[in-house]
Specification:
Radius of gyration: 28 Å
Helix content: 40-55%
Largest sheet: 5 strands, parallel
Number of domains: 4
Number of helices: 25
Strand order of the largest sheet: 2-3-4-1-5
Distance between the termini: 69 Å
Shape: flat
Number of strands: 11
Bound molecules: adenosine-5'-diphosphate, magnesium ion
Structural class: alpha/beta
Oligomer: single chain
Length: 634
């Protein structure tokens, strides 16, 4: 071991996220070529799914590194402004999913076109190719030639697609493509087809597929722009659809790899979902792999390449903690993801360093355990802030209780808070029952359930707790943060007293809890969002001032009314929401008719009014399930 500073002061397990690790120059040296990485590298899997801290960005960054993907890789990470732009993007005549997929396809096509212009010369020599020249002309004509923020590219693409004025002269087409009268959606997809064929032609003329590895488009950090509204849902489904299109359109010369957080992917609910199963890969980590990760990071920071596990877990760390071997102690308490392991080990190291000690003692590990537990409880609430915003309040139910809770005790502990929570989180009220709460807490890995001789914690695919499975355990990771919880407390146990609430949700339905927005709330939101879409369409419509103002005022009334009704319902008053929605729908229909009579039958705003009217009728008739349909127009 090099002389000088003590091991503890040099020891460092790395940063919390791959982006910082990469910036520090740490990741390259210690990156572990896991199964997930190899599958992504080979292109066999293109949809990499994992929980927070599971290593999605690490794979993404490593693919983009010099010793990663052997071809060119382009990294696309939407920020808030870009996310807003995509969420707002819509086209009359096609569903939200389709509209979002078109804007993503535009972004991918422009990236591919820009790549081809640079790459033609560098990789395929000086001979001029007409297809590449066409791409260059297209980029120039549409101001896409320079280096740009994603947001600017999206704005331009959105405008071009919505108003059908992308310049396609480079490909021999007039703007508008002679499709006057077709829906916005039809015109936009026709424009994209032209652009994409132009890109495909260049790939083909250069012979990229045969001569070198494909262009790789990497999309990461969708969680930064994800919220619980239908437009976010469409943003992600649109991305999935667009990535498939890239692979099929460019014949192996380009492909797209997406990195998605598991909770986001699992809430998706769309028609083509089954077509993605063979592209999916869920990141999982074994203890052995995590131990290797810890060892290689310790070895790198201590500059002892041949550091042995015995040395790390016996001399730098104490061999035993609370009667357990150190690695076992660690993996019992950290969730099986690299970020958790890194944070736990850094916390141990910091505790020792603060005392000025050269080595980590059992006491240091104990204080790190508490610190780590506090972090993780907060992080868990944050991880699910969108899908389960009520979590931190549920955790309080376990404060200073034993870590084993029987179902009836859970129910009676929850009951006094039920009404308040259902009011405070009205959108999630359906899931806020004793059974629903148990399922959510299980699905996020906070509670485990006794199954036979074992306590099972969810790592994504386990069955939710079934009726008859009545013994829940708080995961060891969170116990210190909840007051130590040494002893088992079973005071509330009384299996005959409370049944545990509604048993309708059974096998396979665990995921629906996250969509537990009550029907009425969802319907009113549908109305509000229809109004918002109509108002935005109106902005682009170019109607005469007086008509414009009148329509805007009317839509404003509908919107206000929907919002007011929601407020009233929040106050606990029952409202006939179906009636409300049908009224809004028939109003849109009448407005469309009036505009039609004034000679505006073919205007996108008129058609959207009709589309929204129909969509609302459908929603009112059938909005009993989660997610789907409500956002789509025919
Ligand atoms: N295969 C790996 N080899 C080495 N370190 C990894 C690996 N995967 C993840 N890490 C590290 O784990 C931490 C969390 O990973 P990250 O990719 O940021 O998670 P995610 O993007 O899934 O939230 C980062 O410090 C990252 O460098
Ligand atoms: Mg990440």
């Amino acid at each position: 071991m090099p002389q000088g500073a003590s091991p503890v002061s040099r020891l460092f397990f790395g940063r919390d996220d791959a982006e910082h690790d990469m910036a520090d120059g740490l990741l390259g040296g210690v990156f572990l070529h896991t199964y997930a990485y190899r599958e992504a590298l080979s292109g066999r899997k293109s949809l990499i799914i994992g929980r927070k801290g599971a290593g999605k960005s690490a794979i993404c960054r490593q693919l983009g590194a010099a010793d990663g993907h052997p071809g060119i890789a382009v990294l696309i990470t939407p920020d808030d402004t870009a996310g807003d732009e995509i969420r707002r993007f819509e086209l009359q005549g096609v569903s939200g999913d389709t509209a979002k997929s078109l804007i993503w396809r535009y972004v991918f096509a422009v990236h591919a076109a820009r790549h081809l212009c640079d790459h033609a010369r560098a990789a395929h020599g000086w001979r001029a190719r007409s297809s590449v020249k066409a791409l260059r002309d297209f980029l120039e004509a549409n101001d896409e030639a320079g280096e740009e923020r994603l947001y600017d590219r999206l704005r331009r693409g959105a405008r071009g697609l919505q108003s059908a004025n992308l310049s396609l002269k480079a490909f021999g087409f007039e703007a508008g493509l002679g499709l006057n009268g077709a829906s916005e959606g039809a015109r936009a997809s026709r424009q994209l087809e032209v652009l994409e064929s132009g890109v495909a032609a260049a790939f083909h003329e250069l012979g990229c597929t045969a001569s070198h590895p494909p262009l790789l488009l990497l999309v990461d950090q969708i969680e930064q722009v994800w919220t619980m509204d239908p437009d976010s849902h469409a943003l992600v489904t649109g991305l999935l659809l667009a990535s498939k299109q890239v692979t099929s359109q460019y014949g192996g010369a380009a492909r797209c790899t997406l990195f998605l957080r598991a909770d986001i992917y699992d809430t998706l609910n769309f028609g083509d979902a089954d077509k993605f199963h063979s592209d999916e890969l869920r990141i999982s980590w074994s203890r052995e792999e995590l131990a290797r990760l810890a060892l290689s990071r310790a070895a790198a920071s201590l500059q002892v390449p041949e550091l042995s596990p015995e040395h790390l877990w016996g001399e730098v760390f104490p061999a035993m903690v609370s009667g357990e071997e150190m690695p076992g102690y660690l993996f019992e308490r950290a969730l099986p993801r690299p970020r958790d392991v890194i944070q736990f080990l850094n916390a141990c190291r910091d505790a020792a360093d603060q005392r000025g000690s050269e080595y980590i003692t059992e006491q240091d590990v104990h204080s790190a355990t508490k610190q780590f537990s506090d972090w993780k409880l907060t992080d868990l609430a944050r991880e699910y802030a969108v899908t389960h915003p009520f979590l931190s309040q549920l955790f309080l139910l376990f404060d200073n209780h034993g870590y084993v809770t029987m179902r009836p005790a859970l129910a009676s502990r929850f009951e006094p808070h039920r009404e308040r929570l259902q009011q405070e989180f009205a959108d999630y009220a359906d899931g806020l029952t004793a059974q629903g709460v148990a399922e959510v807490l299980f699905s996020i890995g906070f509670l485990g359930v006794r199954r036979g001789h074992k306590v099972v914690y969810s790592h994504g695919s386990q069955m939710p707790p079934q009726p008859g499975e009545d013994e829940f355990h708080v995961h060891p990771c969170f116990r210190p943060a909840l007051g130590g919880l040494g002893a088992v407390e079973m005071a509330g146990y009384s299996p005959n007293r409370i049944s545990g609430g509604n048993h309708q949700r059974q096998i396979g339905q665990g995921r629906d809890v996250s969509l537990g927005v009550s029907r009425d709330v969802r319907l009113l939101d549908d109305v509000s969002r229809a109004c918002e879409r109509l108002l935005r369409q109106l902005m682009r419509a170019g109607l005469q001032d007086d008509i414009h103002n009148e329509v805007r005022a009317q839509l404003g009334h509908v919107l206000d009314d929907a919002r007011r009704t929601r407020e009233i319902m929040r106050g606990g008053i029952t409202v006939d929401v179906t009636q409300h929605v049908l009224a809004a729908s028939s109003f849109f229909g009448r407005l469309a008719m009036e505009l039609g009579e004034q000679g505006m039958r073919e205007e996108p705003i008129t058609r959207r009014l009709e589309d929204e009217a129909r969509a609302l009728i459908r929603a009112a008739g059938g909005a009993t399930g989660g997610g789907g349909g409500s956002d789509s127009s025919p």
